[in-house]
Amino acid sequence: MTNTEAIKKTAEFIKKRFTNDTTGHDWWHIYRVWRLAKHIAKKEKDADLLVVELAALLHDIADHKFHGGDFEIGAKEARKWLSSLDLEEDTIAHVEDIVRNVSFKSANIKPSLSTLEGRIVHDADKLDAIGAIGIARTFTFGGAHGRLVYDPDQPHLKDYTYERAHMQNTSAVHHFYEKLLHLKGRMYTKTGKKMAEHRHEYIENFLKEFYKEWDGEV
Ligand code: ADP
Ligand code: NI
């Protein structure tokens, strides 16, 4: 099987699996991450594009949040799929490792992505959580999970962990402080950092406007 065929088959498989997803990982999230990852890979040079594209397509194949906190589930599912394609073990192991490490767990835990390919997919995924799209996804997720748009009586979780925020059902605006505003400082690649600057500024301005409107000032 050629690289192009393996990527095409993987895209078709994931598209089918995620078309009706409402957990924030719908096919179009995967599609945008795939596009962003290709864009970053071209700018950063020397990345193994097969690994980048397969990992981008498979990065959300199974989310620990919906599998009882099992952080291995994504890697397992990715390997299962990749084994059905005619690929080198090195490629499979590399993609599996990226899928295992790319997911955001908490503001206190930095992911350990040591390869250029892993860093590219990580940055692409995190870029899709900020900017205008990140804002849209946050409120969609909030609504789907019965969360308020904003609740000024809820304290901000300074020592945020995924478990605590999950338990405490924090509002969508709280999620900006739990996750989104941390992402700019976590980008690995030069291209990712630059793109994150722009998207970060956009969400900061959004929050400023939001509070002004909340207080009836504008
Ligand atoms: P990722 O693809 O980065 O691993 P997640 O699975 O953490 O993303 O989340 C999917 C989408 O839902 C993201 O846009 C994320 O910011 C948003 N989201 C996750 N948790 C919350 C929450 N508690 N409140 C609002 N939005 C959330
Ligand atoms: Ni993702």
Number of helices in the DSSP assignment: 10
The portion of residues assigned to helices is 55-70%
Euclidean distance between termini CA atoms: 59 Å
Largest sheet: none
Account of the protein in words:
With 218 residues, this protein is mainly alpha-helical. The chain has one domain (3-214): Hypothetical protein af1432, CATH 1.10.3210.50. It is 61% helix and 0% strand. It contains 10 helices and no strands. The structure holds adenosine-5'-diphosphate (ADP) and nickel (II) ion (NI).
What topology does this entry show?
Elements: H1 3-18, H2 27-44, H3 49-58, H4 73-83, H5 89-101, H6 116-127, H7 131-144, H8 162-168, H9 172-178, H10 190-214
Characteristic key phrases:
Hypothetical protein af1432; globular; binds nickel (II) ion; binds adenosine-5'-diphosphate; 218 residues
